[in-house]
Inverse folding.
């Protein structure tokens, strides 16, 4: 095919392909197969449908695009560059996958403007997209007024076989079908190849039928390589179906254009190699040097700049009209989309400091106090609302027909929930929370990690935080869960001891704009302790019971702080100088000055005992080599909570005995 | 309904119900709803179909039963007791959910004979069942001979709405459909109630259609409360379909029989309460005291004892005939089902100690050396066979039509893979392994935890174990992964440094009969180091470079051991007494005597430096308060591996500098 015979559209599509090929080739690393196969659908989507302004990637009413098959990121970088985003220059593309570049090996929202979500771990993007679509539906229901559709955009996804094999995507898709998210449109790049070879090896289900079972509208495009009009027709049709999310199964050839590697796993995740690049150039009639985009093609792509500017200008005008008609709503919309908190929002939490009950019920009180103060605060549980105590009273459910609702019913879909929360947060305008039993953090750990990596304010409300949950037994009792979560970078893990610390934990979680927080709450009742404070909690660690020159420091978190205080009281009665330190959040404590940390944990005092109903893993950092830990380094057991607590050594007597041992 | 009017079958079914009700009531904790609703299907299954011998729960050719909805465990305990298992006496049932009882809050294979797998975390049981059915299919293909069906049993499952919402079950079901596991039969207790209320709140998909899309045979029983014959007919029909797994959607009423709570979420997870128990007794015409089973019912149930003995005797006879015709195969079958290893199996690994390459390629060499030595060794990757290097060369794939194959194509279904591996191991006769990138341990962490809790020999082969994987970037680079896995009780985490340590790691993993092992391997090449050893590896930690009275100890794992050795060499050249300790497996090291541990890490030497390309979380245990850690306490970055390594401080120079700092 000589260039002369290429239509302008073919020229554009091949521009996408060769930018991707050349970038991968230069990096000698990456995934050319997907961009080569999915270039036509991406072109049609961006050229004919996607609403975006390259010069303002943050325009709030833009359509959201998610490349769930994140390994194919050169597709996305190519589109961003070609359509005129400043975030991806041709030099950035030449720096693909290099240290410090704007074009990392998988799309990262925090690195590249125009990338909405961080993908790569397969399936997550589907969940993110469901979250984005939820956010749109909610904000539209909340803010739009008759004649004023200020929130009105679509969420588009390109996903591959890998995403469709992942359970997290299944969970999210089931949720989306239930919620009838009509503005979610996914294009499934069905190329019948995964890393190990043909999908016949492992993946022979009827994907379209499965999505129909979830309640999706499903269409097929038989020739996704050439038939641009059928792709366009399917997208247009999908937009018309307003009460179901849409899946468009687009049959493509992976690595389209490569004469020897197209349609094989060999083109999935490695550079084509010089000879095959040449062969592909010849095969597609591509006469341009590496990284050269033909002028005609670039001109066509760059029409997006004017088109985007117009679209945003139109929206700005419409928003101005809205602001005139509904000034309060417009101000509120502007506030929530900027992620700013209203003045004095913390005041709502103060009354909770006077309550005394389990921290999960204190959490419930916080959630319900925050709900009126922060209308952007919303969430729910993975089918454990009445155990996690996460229901916002008097507020409707978020359901098809009541998208203004703020109580979410995520179903028993922890992993899907996590991915959805990330999408909700990344949309902007919302502060989402999700809940389950602490031990089931394991089910959604990949999504929690992505909350941290993506720098989003997602709040994980995790109850039943120790063996004190009792009879459900070792499958439900967290042991290593808290330590393993503390190990995740940029995640705040908070385990408050009582009412003041619970309030402090929520203050932290809501205030953190670029970090997720995971809050661990008790099932059982706890006492309010003298010496605890909201302010101390916000520092991550602080002195609860003081002794000027302590012989011994007892460090505890959560429900075990009471044991520490009682043990200290007993030892002090004997004349020992014992200090008690509450350490509800290690990460925040580590961020305090060395001076503050040393004032709380004086390095000179090496006799230290930790008390936490969890694995000792990690505690040596604070306890040192001369200390001891009251902890559980085995799986739990099925018995009433207090029995477990006692049998595993969580008694005042045992804490005292351990302290005596350390004191020598 | 007076007792007189009850048929014997109704009497039996109500016996199940009231044992469950009474046990939950006495414990004041538990889940009566499922046992009450699913009692009819359980009765039909156990009475008319299930092949088992109560007096020998370990009979190898028994049918396997999995209660994936593990919270309904009183159903299973009731069945075990009623049909005459010694493991669950009436006193055990009275001890439901109490400390040390045989009847914990969720079914645990390691506590209760007759319980095949540990369930409770929802969806896992479906994956386990797929693994059990895979094991049956493989062993049948391997051992059966014309006229000798010594392996010929079914895997039955009862699962609920919760299981069907979980992605892990979706992944496993897709896998089972692909593999055409005809002897897997699941009964879906469709009661339209989950914990938070009606499934209308969150779960409105067409489950049957979804399973059809997976390639399952799907049937419906409209009245699962009374219509025993329809249940039986459906099971019989399912058995006839040999090329598809079967789902039977059985519509039931949760808490059937409770006049005020049946059909509500209130009966799911709490005792009925005295009044409602009385009302239920009246409603079902149940005149017996708590824990009393009517004699006629017990007699009917206990027929299982003779029936089971006969079934096993018949099998024993058939196995004797098999042993006569195929003595070698019979001996081999007996060996593998006992989980015993053949004499001298380790010898196969010796040649690998002389190779020098990346540890993932060394792992490949070990896998391929073990394959002929251990015919029960089998597994595969979650679509990364060519990255994880897990393919057993010259051995067929395990696929429909080649169940004798030992190479598994799990697809991009990490979580499903983990749950399937647990089932394969729990079946007996197999030593399964599964592979993915180390960072994606997060996707299957809930299954890994259950491997440990269930005490199974599952081997996780995890490659690309650090930032040295390079360009794929932070989504793919493990940072906190290794520490977070070390935190799991009873899981061996092994990170070998070179050929000898890789061989040692496989020796450990294969030898451990009751613990899972997770092996972390490099993408990049490593050097064989003088001083490493297979024996040292098996101790978890040992001295690699010695210094009699060390001034400083450098402790390292995996690929960083080379940096430690080089740094030590440089410092020794300056006259410093530096010891290098390799610590490939913390858990094994902790199991050595105090004397041995002190000989490796003398307590007197407090100047210590750790080197591991991972989070420092947990390292204070070995490094102490005077030491330092060369580690990464942030997310990684997209760049070539060597660039990442250098930028994050993994250079000999930086290790030396850190050592100097510690030496002062």
């Amino acid at each position: 095919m000589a260039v002369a015979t290429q239509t302008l559209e073919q020229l554009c599509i091949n521009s996408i392909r060769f930018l991707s090929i050349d970038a991968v080739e230069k990096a000698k690393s990456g995934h050319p197969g997907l961009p080569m196969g999915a270039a036509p659908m991406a072109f049609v989507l961006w050229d004919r449908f996607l609403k975006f302004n390259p010069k303002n990637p943050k325009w709030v009413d833009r359509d959201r695009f998610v490349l769930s098959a994140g390994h194919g990121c050169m597709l996305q970088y190519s589109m961003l560059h070609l359509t005129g985003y400043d975030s991806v220059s041709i030099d950035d593309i030449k720096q693909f996958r290099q240290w410090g570049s704007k074009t990392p090996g998988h799309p990262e929202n925090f690195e590249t403007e125009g990338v909405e979500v961080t993908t790569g771990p397969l399936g997550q993007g589907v969940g993110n997209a469901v979250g984005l679509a939820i956010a749109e539906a909610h904000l539209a229901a909340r803010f739009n007024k008759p004649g004023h559709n200020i929130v009105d955009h679509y969420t588009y996804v390109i996903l591959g076989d890998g995403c469709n094999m992942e359970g997290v995507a299944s969970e999210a898709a089931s949720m989306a079908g239930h919620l009838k998210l009509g503005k979610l449109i996914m294009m499934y790049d069905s190329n019948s190849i995964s890393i190990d070879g043909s999908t016949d090896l492992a993946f022979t289900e009827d994907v379209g039928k499965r999505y129909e079972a979830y309640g999706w509208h499903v269409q097929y495009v038989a020739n996704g390589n050439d038939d641009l009009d059928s792709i366009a027709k399917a997208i247009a049709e999908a937009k018309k179906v307003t009460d179901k999310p849409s899946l468009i199964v687009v049959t493509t050839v992976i690595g389209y254009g490569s004469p020897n590697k197209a349609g094989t796993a060999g083109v999935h995740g490695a550079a084509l190699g010089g000879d095959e690049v040449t062969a592909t150039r010849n095969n597609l009639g591509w006469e341009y040097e590496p990284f050269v985009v033909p002028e005609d093609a670039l001109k066509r792509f760059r029409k997006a700049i004017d088109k985007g500017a117009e679209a945003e200008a139109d929206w700005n005008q419409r928003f101005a009209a809205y602001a005139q008609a509904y000034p309060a709503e417009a101000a509120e919309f502007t506030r929530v989309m900027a992620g700013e908190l209203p003045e004095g929002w913390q005041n709502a939490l103060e009354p909770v400091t006077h309550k005394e009950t389990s921290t999960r019920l204190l959490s419930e009180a916080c959630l319900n106090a925050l709900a009126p103060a922060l209308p952007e605060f919303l969430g729910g549980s993975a089918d454990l609302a009445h155990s996690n105590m996460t229901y916002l009273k008097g507020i409707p459910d978020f359901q098809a027909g009541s998208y203004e609702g703020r109580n979410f019913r995520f179903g028993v879909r922890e992993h899907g929930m996590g991915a959805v929360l990330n999408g909700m947060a990344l949309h902007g305008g919302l502060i989402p929370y999700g809940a389950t039993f602490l031990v089931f953090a394991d089910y959604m750990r990949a999504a929690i990690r992505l909350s941290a990596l993506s720098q989003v304010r997602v709040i994980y409300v995790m109850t039943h935080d120790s063996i004190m949950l009792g009879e459900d037994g070792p499958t439900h009792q967290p042991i290593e869960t808290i330590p393993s979560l503390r190990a995740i970078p940029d995640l705040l893990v908070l385990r408050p001891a009582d009412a003041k610390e619970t309030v402090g934990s929520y203050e932290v979680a809501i205030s953190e704009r670029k970090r997720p927080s995971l809050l661990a709450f008790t099932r059982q009742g706890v006492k309010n302790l003298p010496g605890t404070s909201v302010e101390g909690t916000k520092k991550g660690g602080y002195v609860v019971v003081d002794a000027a020159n302590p012989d011994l420091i007892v460090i505890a978190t959560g429900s075990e702080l009471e044991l520490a205080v009682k043990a200290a009281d007993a030892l002090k009665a004997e004349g020992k100088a014992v200090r008690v330190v509450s350490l509800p959040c290690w990460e925040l404590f580590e961020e305090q000055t060395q001076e503050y940390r040393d004032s709380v944990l004086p390095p000179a005092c090496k006799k230290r005992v930790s008390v936490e109903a969890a694995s000792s893993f990690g505690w040596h950092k604070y306890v040192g080599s001369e200390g001891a830990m009251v902890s559980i380094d085995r799986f739990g057991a099925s018995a009433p909570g207090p029995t477990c607590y006692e049998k595993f050594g969580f008694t005042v007597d045992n804490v005292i005995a351990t302290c005596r041992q350390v004191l020598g």
